[in-house]
């Protein structure tokens, strides 16, 4: 990063999770000012209890990213504090194994669709207008390699991540002329404590590290990705 350039203003949802923390650390190392959003403010404050000294302080906000009503005051507070948002990284989402597709419950369907697809709409709706006004911005969502095909007992999850990719592509088509890049990373299994606990016998070295995923996000948020629009950067690891 150019030492003479002003710091970028970066918003990260799902910031208290394993990937969110890695993404925050990556942008902090670049000197960015961060606005971090998660559902539980107390957990967020615990995770980021000791921010880097050169960040000028982090903005920490609790919000339900599936709720337009909840996101509105949080986004307004961030824009008021920053004046502009240069990068929006939408990490927040969810995963669950579900019922067989023929027995899929509406509750499971709505839960996955809300967390993984609608949340993208609820979050971007409050930051895209500001990016369009400034004629620049980067939006990076966290999709999944599994968005390309269905899998047994993962119908709702796979469909919701596929829906997220279609939303990324659609938004990209709508805003690229305004200087805004919208893309996603699509990792395979991430090497997180939760996944290790769920799959203790798996070969963890074949998974995608959160650091590698954070570097991919940083690339899509960089000037090097200026010509990339509506794409999904697949992170296979060794799997």
Features:
single chain; 239 residues; alpha/beta; Rossmann fold; seven-stranded parallel beta sheet; two-stranded parallel sheet; 9 strands; globular
Give a short synopsis of this structure.
This is SDR family oxidoreductase. This protein is an alpha/beta fold.
Descriptive notes:
This protein is α/β, with parallel strands linked by helices and 239 residues long. It has one domain: Rossmann fold (3-Layer(aba) Sandwich), CATH 3.40.50.720. The protein has eight helices and nine strands. The protein has helices spanning 18-29, 41-47, 68-82, 106-124, 128-134, 155-175, 193-198, 210-220, and strands spanning 9-13, 33-38, 59-62, 87-90, 137-142, 180-187, 190-191, 208-209, 232-235. The strands form two sheets. Strands 3-2-1-4-5-6-9 form a seven-stranded parallel β-sheet, sandwiched between helices. α4 (106-124) packs parallel to α6. The mean pLDDT is 94.
Distance between the termini: 32 Å
Rough outline = globular
Largest sheet: 7 strands, parallel
Averaged pLDDT, please?
Answer: 94
| Class based on secondary structure composition and strand pairing | alpha/beta
The name CATH uses for the topology is Rossmann fold
Spans of at least 5 consecutive residues whose pLDDT stays below 50 are none
Order of helices and strands: EHEHEHEHHEHEEHEHE
Count of individual beta strands:
9
Write out the CATH superfamily name. NAD(P)-binding Rossmann-like Domain
| Number of helical regions | 8
What's the structural domain tally? 1
Q: Compute the CA-based radius of gyration.
A: 17 Å
């Amino acid at each position: 990063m150019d030492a003479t350039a002003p710091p970028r203003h970066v918003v990260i949802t799902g910031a208290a999770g394993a990937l969110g923390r890695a993404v925050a650390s990556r942008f902090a190392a670049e000197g960015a000012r961060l606005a971090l959003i998660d559902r539980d403010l107390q957990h967020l404050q615990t995770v980021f209890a000791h921010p880097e000294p050169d960040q000028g302080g982090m903005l920490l906000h609790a919000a339900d990213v599936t709720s337009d009503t909840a996101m509105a005051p949080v986004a307004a507070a961030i824009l008021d504090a920053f004046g502009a948002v240069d990068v929006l990284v939408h990490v927040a989402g969810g995963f669950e194994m579900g019922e067989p597709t023929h027995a899929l419950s509406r509750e499971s369907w709505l839960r996955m669709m809300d967390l993984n697809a609608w949340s993208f709409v609820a979050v971007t709706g409050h930051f895209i207008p500001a990016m369009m006004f400034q004629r620049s911005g980067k939006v990076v969502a966290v999709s999944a390699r599994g968005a390309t095909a269905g899998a047994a007992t993962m119908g709702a999850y796979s469909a919701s991540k596929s829906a997220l990719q279609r939303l990324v592509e659609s938004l990209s088509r709508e805003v690229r002329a305004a200087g805004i890049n919208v893309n996603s990373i699509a990792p395979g299994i991430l090497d997180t404590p939760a996944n290790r606990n769920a799959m203790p016998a798996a070969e963890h070295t074949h998974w995608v590290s959160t650091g590698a995923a954070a570097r991919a996000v940083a690339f899509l948020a960089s000037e090097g990705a200026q010509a990339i629009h509506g794409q999904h950067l697949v992170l296979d690891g060794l799997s």
